[in-house]
Amino acid sequence: MKILIDPGHGLNTPGKRSPDGRFLEAQFNREISRNIVYELKDRGYDAELLVPEDTDIPLKERASRANAHTSLHGKDQVIIISIHANAFGNGKEWTSPKGWSIYTSKGKTESDKLATCIAQAAQKYLPNLHLRGDFSDQDIDYEESFYILKKTISPAVLTENGFFTNKEDLAYIESREGKRAITDLHVEGIIEYLMTRQ
Description:
17% strand; Aminopeptidase; alpha/beta
């Protein structure tokens, strides 16, 4: 199974920073993504960064790269996990929305199973971070038409790992403990999903 970890945005993406300007989402996404890939490879899994560049790679190119792996390995032999942190408001003021969430494309797909495994790991590893979810269809993931979810062929999910416009969330996701927990929940959730495929 090829595991593609997609660090969202790029260091040149406008905005995508905390109201005080010290936190850059792209930098965080890349640190977490690299940690996930390292941990998975250390356990013998075939994981790699979909976007190794620090600059922002267009969504069309990201989807094209993912689909090239699908063409090579097969639809059921590739999964994509896109790593993000969330924001609310105009980006200039601290806001109250907080928490962790996961997204899939619309409808019932294999992505829902991957999302459920990662969300269950999040419940274990993030006791101090509110888990946000849409349970209207009996699972936790939100359904959206995000490009990386809609335009990729293999199962794909997108995680929002806390709000960098919320002071409490930001303090946690910047901490060593928070980064470790966010890395671990992805690694454990991915491995649990792969175990269900055996």
